[in-house]
Specification:
- The complex is a heterodimer of chains A (244) and B (446).
- Chain A folds into two domains: 170 residues, P-loop containing nucleotide triphosphate hydrolases (Rossmann fold, 3-Layer(aba) Sandwich); 62 residues, no CATH class.
- Chain A has eight helices and nine strands.
- The two termini of chain A are 31 Å apart.
- Chain A has 244 residues and is α/β, with parallel strands linked by helices.
- In chain A, α3 crosses α4 and α7 crosses α8.
- In chain A, the strands form two sheets. Chain A has a six-stranded mixed beta sheet with strand order 5-6-7-3-8-9, sandwiched between helices.
- Chain B is an alpha/beta fold and 446 residues long.
- Chain B has two domains: 234 residues, no CATH class; 106 residues, abc type-2 transporter like fold (3-Layer(aba) Sandwich).
- In chain B, strands 4-1-5-6 form a four-stranded mixed beta sheet, with helices on both faces. A two-stranded antiparallel sheet of chain B has the order 2-3. Chain B has a two-stranded antiparallel ribbon with strand order 7-8.
- In chain B, β2 and β3 form a beta hairpin.
- In chain B, α2 packs parallel to α12, α10 runs antiparallel to α12 and α10 packs antiparallel against α14.
- The radius of gyration of chain B is 35 Å and the shape is elongated.
- The relative contact order of chain B is 0.09.
- The chains are: A alpha/beta (244), B alpha/beta (446).
- Chains A and B meet through α2 of A and α1 and α11 of B.
- Chain A: InterPro entries: AAA+_ATPase, ABC_transporter-like_ATP-bd, ABC_transporter-like_CS, ABC_transporter_ATP-binding, P-loop_NTPase.
Chain lengths: 244, 446
């Protein structure tokens, strides 16, 4: 974390979020805050409610109860990078960025596109059709689209799921650079090792309930895992102890 | 909506196959329909065996002679004739498919026609058993046989009229190789009237029935020819169109082709464009308030309707090179095609809002559009009245029927029913627009 999370004002405050689909409660009374420049991982078993929580924070779905608040005076939209690339395969990299920049109503779309091409390192491939790029490069464009409006908070759903180790390393370098500039990043993942390596904090969700909200080391401590055990074992033990 | 429209155009431009199809389709359809309507049907090939001996080609009715060749020639102006030597050859031609049918005129044809009356003379037609071809050649041969029958009946009528004239007014008549002089009914009555003036009351009373017969005969002379005319042509068709005007088949075929093409382009394009947003997962981004749902739908409808409008208008202009269409009605064409296109495109986005991928949307659009087009063309009387009412209700729930009515009216002749069709299309546009919006919201919240 490059910005002191303890002293910075929260970039996002989530209060008492709940969401049900019919009889099933997907998210139950979830509350947390995230500071500027903080990197928070949401982990949990399949069906825990990670994607539902992120889509509520992104404004795609409405919660049944609770609120999502940004600091007073902040009107910027929260950045959103869905699990699967959400960009047009028949358009070029630049056309995709230009289209979403205009839809996001950024003040100078062309300058923004140039900046994002520069940041993602895709300047030389700007005129290539997206469908012809590798999965890693498509994901970089996917993330770049989420950052077009320079959002104070960025949400990523399973950002490295489809990437090979080298692409994953580049992706995390890119995300770390974002946090160093003050962007708060929340990502959902199945990869516990990735959460341990990169996240400042982990939120553990199970059956829609927030069971844990602290640093990865604290999760290991609570699960009574020694240094030889990794966070994944601590996480499994933690869930088992709580009946999940 | 402007940026989304531009984006969809960019995507269309890169989909070379789709764009190629949109360009080639109207040209190909216009040429096909144009050539079909302007060239007329091909003549079916018909094997012909005439077994009448050369010396018996003439039928004698009193002193009138009818050449059978005149009768058989009536049959061959609508078919390609293949002369054969015998019945086996005729059957072989049909079996091998060289001829679609064989017409055999038996050797006793003239004799039966002369002696046994008109109905007892028969000709034999052999078909090859392929349903479509048989139906085509059967209807051709039978219509030509009917014409030939009518021509023969006219000849017989002419001979009979001559006999009646001689019986009525007197004259000479040839029968059995001899010439007879006839007094005639009119002269016979005069002679009888003169004779009865001087006859005794007893003779006058005895001849009274004969005098009455002569009176009735002379008074009804004019009816004899009427009766013969009725026998020659017993039924005349008096045509009345109950509503609208009679539509020429050619221009109705044009209206139908335009409507079907408009439907396919609009429904497939609109459903595909909307489903693409879900297939590419971009809908989740757009649904965050970047593009309101209503605008997203309107953009797809406008683009699909505009593409289909250009395609069908080009097609219509292409067809007009072959089938004469009234260019003075172009404004009505534009109105009808635009209204129909928007209604079809709205149906398309309603379908697209239900599908998660383009292929599923296309399949759903085809499965829905094709049966509806067929249903809308079922004529009254073609099925039971209850089923027809059900079909009418189903057809009214989708845009094909009113679109066909509007376009047919625009091309052929506009009347009040065009306004009804346009109002119908507007109502369906609103209904399917609402359904599409509901489908989109349902997906967004799922």
């Amino acid at each position: 974390m490059s910005v002191d999370a303890a002293t910075a004002a929260p970039a996002l405050t989530v209060q008492g979020i709940s969401k049900s689909f019919g009889e099933r409660r997907a998210v139950r009374d979830v509350s947390f805050e995230i500071a500027r420049g903080e990197l928070v991982a949401i982990i949990g078993p399949n069906g825990a409610g990670k994607t539902t929580l992120l889509s509520i924070l992104a404004g795609i779905q409405q919660s049944d109860e609770g609120s999502v608040a940004q600091p007073d005076g902040t009107t910027a939209r929260i950045g959103w990078v869905p699990q699967q690339t959400a960009i047009y395969g028949k358009l070029t990299v630049a056309q995709n960025l230009r289209l979403f920049a205009k839809l996001e109503k950024v003040s100078d779309p062309e300058a923004t596109v140039e900046r994002m091409l520069d940041q993602t390192g895709l300047g030389e491939r700007a005129d290539e059709e997206l469908g012809r790029l590798s999965g890693g490069n498509r994901q970089r464009v996917n993330i770049a689209v989420g950052l077009l409006a320079d959002p104070p908070v960025l949400l990523l759903d399973e950002p490295s799921g489809a990437l090979d180790p080298r692409q994953r390393e580049r992706l995390w370098g890119f995300i770390t650079a974002l946090t160093q500039r003050g962007t708060a990043v929340i990502f959902a993942t199945h990869d516990i090792a990735e959460a341990e390596r990169h996240a400042d904090r982990v939120l553990v969700l199970a059956d829609g309930e927030l069971l844990f909200d602290d640093a990865p080391a604290e999760l290991k401590r609570i699960a009574q895992a020694d240094d030889e055990h990794d966070l994944e074992q601590a996480f499994v033990g933690f869930l088992r102890d709580r009946g999940h | 909506m402007r940026w989304m429209l531009l984006k969809d155009l960019q995507i269309l431009r890169r989909s070379k196959l789709l764009v190629g199809l949109l360009v080639v389709y109207p040209v190909a359809i216009a040429l096909l329909i144009g050539f079909s309507l302007s060239s007329g049907p091909e003549k079916p090939s018909l094997a012909f065996l005439n077994q009448i001996p050369a010396t018996q080609n003439t039928i004698n009715f009193g002193d009138e002679k009818i050449d059978v060749k005149v009768y058989t020639d009536k049959l061959f102006d609508a078919v390609d004739r293949i002369d054969v030597e015998n019945r086996e050859q005729a059957l072989e031609k049909v079996r091998t498919g060289e001829a679609l049918a064989a017409l055999i005129i038996p050797s006793d044809f003239v004799m039966k026609l002369s002696n046994g009356g008109f109905n007892s003379a028969t000709v034999e037609v052999v078909y090859n058993g392929e349903a479509l071809q048989q139906s085509f050649v059967e209807s051709t041969v039978q219509s030509k046989l009917a014409l030939a029958d009518a021509a023969l009946a006219r000849q017989i009528n002419k001979v009979a009229s001559g006999y009646i004239k001689v019986i009525t007014t007197g004259g000479e008549i040839n029968a059995l190789g001899q010439t007879f002089k006839l007094l005639g009914l009119v002269e016979s009555k005069k002679l009888l009237d003169d004779t009865l003036q001087d006859a005794s009351p007893q003779i006058a009373r005895r001849l009274e029935p004969l005098q009455n017969f002569a009176d009735i005969g002379v008074a009804n002379i004019g009816r004899f020819n009427d009766v013969l005319n009725t026998v020659e042509r017993p039924v005349e068709v008096d045509e009345t169109v109950v509503s609208g005007r009679r539509t020429p088949l050619d221009t109705f075929a044009v209206a139908l082709a335009v409507t079907v093409s408009l439907m396919f382009v609009c429904v497939l394009l609109a459903s595909g464009l909307l489903a693409l947003e879900r297939e590419e997962n971009t809908f989740s981004r757009l649904a965050r308030g970047l593009v309101p749902g209503g605008w997203l739908l309107a953009g797809k409808v406008v683009l699909a309707a505009a593409c289909a409008f250009v395609v069908t208008l080009v097609m219509l202009l292409g067809i007009s090179a072959f089938v004469p269409l009234d260019y003075g009605r172009v404004a009505l064409w534009i109105l009808a095609i635009a209204a129909s296109g928007i209604a079809f495109a709205t149906l398309g986005v309603a379908i697209g809002s239900l599908a998660r991928e383009v292929r599923a949307a296309s399949l759903l659009a085809l499965m829905l559009a094709l049966p509806l087009a067929f249903l809308a063309l079922v004529p009254s009387g073609g099925v039971s009245p209850v089923l027809y009412d059900v079909i009418q209700v189903i057809s009214a729930l989708f845009p094909f029927k009113p679109a066909l009515d509007a376009i047919n009216n625009a091309i052929n002749a506009a009347d009040a029913s065009m306004l009804v069709a346009l109002a119908h299309l507007a109502a369906l546009t609103i209904a399917f627009g609402g359904a599409a919006y509901w489908g989109l919201r349902r997906f967004a919240s799922a």
